[in-house]
Amino acid sequence: MTTPHRRWPLVPPPEELQRRYLESGQWLDTTLGAFVDERLQATSALDLRIWSRTRPWRGTIGDVRAMAYRVAGGLRTAGIGPGDVVAFQLPNWIEAAATFYGASLLGAVLVPVVHFYGAKEVRYILAHTGARALITAASFRQSDYLAALATFRGDLPQLEIVVVVGDDARATEAGLPFAKLLDAQPIEAPLRVDPREPAVIGFTSGTTSDPKGVIHSHHTIVAETRQLADMQSDRVLPLLVGAPVGHAIGMLSGLLVPLCQEKAIHLLDLWDPPLILDAMLEADLTCGSGATYFLTSLLDAPGFTREHLKRMTRIGLGGAPVPAAISDRADALGISIVRSYGSTEHPSSTGAKHEEPAVKRKYTDGHALWGVELKLVDEDGNPVAAGHPGEILTRGPDRFVGYTDPALSAAALDADGWYATGDIGVLDADGYLTITDRKKDIIIRGGENVSAAEVEEILMRMPGVTEVAVVAAPDARFGEHACAVLRMQPGHALPDLDAVRAHFAAAGLAKQKWPEEICGVDDFPRTPSGKIKKFVLRAQLRERAASGR
């Protein structure tokens, strides 16, 4: 059965910018599949290894290229072709790599789904994109994907093919076992599609609403891959990647950038510090880049030694705020830190290299990258001067081409190609950007706005604090007050409110900005990129207040 291809509500950059990107070589006249295939061939002799306590795998990139061609052939035999939507929800297993590369070779529209999304999110994503094929695991840890799928599959008539990894009996009952997909004849070469059309649709974590579908064309995702590879060109050792390939960060750093850098690929299906530390020594890997959590969890892990530190001398942090205290801690250990800023919509907006001045690397989020333009504006849309905060607007060759929901595109993209990020920052005289807040990441206490980022920065200076999130908690008197949720280093007790007040008094911060409540956690709820889900913390505090606890 063949269904008409969906007309996606694309919002490409203005024609003048498109010409600029093509003439400068920032956009290539190629598809993601052709680009991937060329890089897979160039790196075919290098290792590709899955580090897992349950499904380890080891081979070469060439082995996975051959598998990907069979995945493409199997999908083609099942009636899936260029422009069709192929969704996949898999942990960082070998099947995820083969699926991503294989669907790219086929010219399909890829919809990666992070492996911990539940039935509500997955149903929405499949329905919203009109996915014709889903490649999923039978189960992983506490998640039973097939049981979840059974609750809504009848509502998705366009979902014609389900391919299942693991548990062959259930896979056969639910659809097609992945192993059977590989029995098909491989396609002969990557299939050509228009590079202006969608290649990947990534879904960002929602707050109180459904996740947003972010559309990247072949032009933009290839530009992003090349740009990010160039920014990280000084990396010597292969990177062990724990971020899920179902999310933009894991997809780029785990499956695409290593191909450009001609590095081996090493993926981890579960963030497991003891396993990571063993892997780093066994295979001579670096690790700890990404969100600050990935770095601090290794530094705090039992068994961390100088041999590990020797492999972590250059670390890139981004995807979540990077407190100065973390940069200082790393610097004291001899780790060079670079910070970057981006989003699923515009993955690499700013960044820096390790050769740049330490004060810029450590305490700013870098400068505009290749082809990227930045503009900071006030509430009325007027540009602000250097040193003054404003909302960050970005545009560039790797900026997305619209949301799947046209209303969201209309609110975030303007006629000149600028994307309104919703983040607040300051540009210095040298063009380096520092993220200071989000528009909505504030506590409104008695009519006064309190910056969560400002309070978090001071809390990170307290002894024993590894990670912090400051959120608004209900307050009968002021409407809201600042609640500090802390994750402590092993062996350090949660500070009481008196200790926190003394610390803030010494820091000289206005009293109305001090936290008025302290909570401790063993870990935070997180997005796939490691960012703390503050909306979950706020909801928990509201529920607690409503129940009178």
Tell me the strand order in the biggest sheet: 4-3-5-8-9
Low-confidence stretches: none
| Radius of gyration over C-alpha positions, nearest whole angstrom | 23 Å
CATH C-level label of the domain at 31-44 and 57-216 = Alpha Beta
Strand content: 15-25%
Query: Termini, distance in Å?
Result: 56 Å
Number of helices: 19
Per CATH, which architecture of the domain at 31-44 and 57-216?
3-Layer(aba) Sandwich
Structure in words:
- The protein has 549 residues and is of the alpha/beta class.
- Among the domains are: 31-44 and 57-216, 3-Layer(aba) Sandwich (Rossmann fold); 443-547, GMP Synthetase, Chain A, domain 3.
- The protein is 34% helix and 23% strand.
- The chain contains 19 helices and 26 strands.
- The strands form nine sheets. The protein has a five-stranded parallel β-sheet with strand order 4-3-5-8-9, sandwiched between helices.
- α9 (218-231) crosses α10 (248-261).
Keywords:
549 residues; alpha/beta; Rossmann fold; GMP Synthetase, Chain A, domain 3; 5-stranded parallel sheet; 4-stranded mixed sheet; 19 helices; 34% helix; 23% strand; globular
List the helices and strands and how they pair.
Blueprint: H1 15-24, H2 32-42, E1 47-51, E2 57-60, H3 61-77, E3 85-89, H4 94-106, E4 109-112, H5 119-129, E5 133-137, E6 139-140, E7 143-144, H6 145-150, E8 161-165, H7 168-174, E9 176-177, H8 178-181, E10 198-204, E11 212-217, H9 218-231, E12 240-241, H10 248-261, E13 265-268, H11 273-283, H12 292-299, H13 306-309, E14 314-317, H14 324-332, E15 336-339, E16 350-351, H15 358-363, E17 367-368, E18 373-377, E19 390-395, H16 406-412, E20 419-427, E21 433-438, E22 442-445, E23 448-451, H17 452-459, E24 465-475, E25 479-488, H18 497-507, E26 517-520, H19 534-547
Parallel strand pairs: 1-13, 3-4, 3-5, 5-8, 8-9, 12-13, 14-15, 25-26
Antiparallel strand pairs: 1-2, 6-7, 10-11, 16-17, 18-19, 19-20, 20-21, 22-23, 24-25
Helix pairs in contact: 2-4, 3-4, 9-10
